[in-house]
Amino acid sequence: MTIREAGQALRSRQISCLELTNRCLDHIGKLNPRLNAFITVTQESARARAQELDRELTSGRDRGPLHGIPIGHKDLIWTMGVRTTSGSKLFEGFVPDHDAQVVERLSAAGAVMVGKTGLHELAYGITSDNPHFGTIRNPRNTEHMPGGSSGGSAVAVATGMALMATGTDTGGSIRIPASYCGVVGIKPTYGLVSVAGIQPLGFSLDHIGPLTTTVGDARVSLDALADGAQRKPGPASVRDIRVGVPQNYYFTQVAPEVREAVHNAATRAEGLGARVIPVQVPDIDAINAASLVILLSEAAALYEPYLDRQSEIGLDVRALLYQGRQVPATDYVNAQRLRKLLANEFRALFRSIDCLFTPATPITAPRIGQREVEVDGEMLDTRLVTTRFARGFNALGFPALAMPCGESPEGMPIGLQMVGRPFEESLLFTLGEALE
Amino acid sequence: MLGSMQNQDTPPFPLDLPKDQIERVEKILEQVLTYLRSQSRNLPPQADLALTYNLQPEADR
C-alpha cells in the first residue's frame, strides 16, 4: 500500500490509523526475524499515537498526506526517549533527550513512528552487514545484500513494514539501497533538509531524505521534511524537460541489463514528450576522488576521540577510520577546492539540460559477503563499484532520485538515478511520476 | 606510508586488521590520492573554500 492509497482509505474510513499501524506492526512481527530491517520496534507508542490521530480525524483535524502514516526512522536519527544506536556498539545505550528536527517535522505532519531501522555500522558502508545488530537481508533474495547504509529503511519500505522510512546519504546511502531493493529514494539538495539531531558521518556531504515505494510518496514525504520555500516549482509538463543521457563514464563498467534498463527509461521519457539529449559529463573520477577524500577525512576527524574504544568498532569501519587518518590536510583542502570547480562545470552542463539520467548502481545487489564483483569481464571491489555513480553527487550537492526501472534476469531490481539542478526536486518528481 | 606524519600513539592501522584488508585500503587510498593530486595540480587560486557549500544560484557569481 502506498501513502496515497492509505490516505484515501483513511479519509473514506475504510481503515483507521490504528488498523494501518497494526498492519505494519504485523508485517514487522512476521518478516523482521528473517530480514532484520528494524533494530527497535516501538509498538506501544505507535499504537497510542495512531489512536490519537484517529481521534483528530474524527474531530475534523487533518494534518495532511502523512496523517496516520506508519514510518520508520534510520537508527542514527535522534528520537526522544527511544534508543538511537547508529548501528554501533559505541552508542548501543544512547537514548536522546530530544528529537531530531526531521522527527519533529514528520511527527507534526501526522506520521506514526513504528520503529528504528537498521543500518551499516555508523552509516559507513554499503552492505548493511552489521557486526553488532546482525545482517540485514534483501527481501527479493535473502542471500543478497540490501545495500546501505540505509539498508533497514529500504527493506522496511519494500516489504510494507513501513510506508516511508528516513535515510541518510553521504556517499549513496539512500540511493544504493533504493536501487538494490527496488524502492524510491531521494537525496535532496545539500542543506535542504536539516541535519540537526542526526549522527553525522561527513559533515559537508551528509544529506537526509525519504525512502518510499512510489515517486509520488517521496514527493509528499519531502514536502513534510523540508521547508518548501527554498524549492523551485516543477515544470508544467514532462514536455518541458530536457533529459541528458551521458555518452561517457556512466555506461562503461556496467552490467548489460542495467545499461539496457536505463536506456529504456530514457526512451520512455522521450515517448512521454521529454527531449533526450546526448551529453558529455565532466570528470566523474575526479569528483568521486574528491568526495571520497573529504569523507575519509571528515569521518576520521569525527571518530578520532573514539579510537581508544576501537575494539568496539567493526573491522571494515575501523579500517576506513584509519585510512582517513592518513589523508594529509593539503589533500583535504584541495579536494574541497576541486569540488567547487567541478560543481561549476556541472552547472554549465545543466544549462543545456534539466535532468541527467544514469544508473543508480552499475550492478544489481551482490551476494552478502561478496567483496568483489565481475563487471564487463573485470573483477572489481564491491564497495567502489556500488558507490561509483552515486558518490559524486554528494560532493556536488545536486538532488538525485533513485527509482526502479527494471529487473535482472534473476529478478533483482535495477535502479535509475535522475539528477537535477539544486532545489529542483519537483522536476525530478514530475518526471519520475510520469515514468511510473 | 602516505601521510607525512603519524600520531605517535596510534599505529597506521589497527593491529588486528587482516593484512589483506590493510593492503586493500592502502591501495585504494593511494589510487585516489594520486588521481586527486593530478587533478588539483592546476587549481586556480580563485578556487577557494568560501562558497563550497552554497548551492544557491548566487554561488555562480
Topology:
The complex is a heterodimer of chains A (436) and B (61).
Chain A: H1 3-11, H2 17-35, E1 38-41, H3 43-58, E2 70-74, H4 101-108, E3 112-117, E4 129-130, E5 134-135, H5 151-158, E6 164-169, H6 175-181, E7 184-187, E8 207-212, H7 215-225, E9 242-246, H8 256-271, E10 275-279, H9 284-303, H10 315-325, H11 329-349, E11 355-359, E12 372-375, E13 378-381, H12 382-387, H13 392-396, E14 400-407, E15 413-420, H14 425-435
Parallel strand pairs in A: 2-3, 2-6, 9-10, 9-11
Antiparallel strand pairs in A: 1-3, 4-5, 6-8, 7-8, 7-14, 11-15, 12-13, 14-15
Helix pairs in contact in A: 2-3, 7-14, 9-10, 9-11
Chain B: H1 19-40
Question: How does this structure look, described?
Answer:
The complex is a heterodimer of chains A (436) and B (61). With 436 residues, chain A is α/β, with parallel strands linked by helices. Chain A has a domain at 3-230: Amidase signature (AS) domain (Amidase signature (AS) enzymes), CATH 3.90.1300. Chain A contains 14 helices and 15 strands. Chain A has helices at 3-11, 17-35, 43-58, 101-108, 151-158, 175-181, 215-225, 256-271, 284-303, 315-325, 329-349, 382-387, 392-396, 425-435; strands at 38-41, 70-74, 112-117, 129-130, 134-135, 164-169, 184-187, 207-212, 242-246, 275-279, 355-359, 372-375, 378-381, 400-407, 413-420. In chain A, the strands form 3 sheets. An 11-stranded mixed β-sheet of chain A has the order 1-3-2-6-8-7-14-15-11-9-10, sandwiched between helices. Chain A has a two-stranded antiparallel ribbon with strand order 4-5. Chain A has a two-stranded antiparallel ribbon with strand order 12-13. In chain A, β4 and β5 (134-135) form a beta hairpin. The mean pLDDT of chain A is 97. Helices cover 36% and strands 0% of the residues of chain B. Chain B has 1 helix and no strands. Chain B has one helix at 19-40. The longest helix of chain B has 22 residues, at 19-40. The termini of chain B are far apart. The A-B interface holds A 189-191, 204, 283, 285-286, 289-290, 292-293, 296, 307, 310, 315-316, 318-320, 322-323, 325-328, 331, 333-341, 343-344, 347, 381, 384, 397-398, 422-423 and B 1-4, 6-7, 10, 12-14, 16-18, 21-22, 24-26, 28-29, 32-33, 35-37, 39-40, 43, 47-49, 51-53, 55-56, 60.
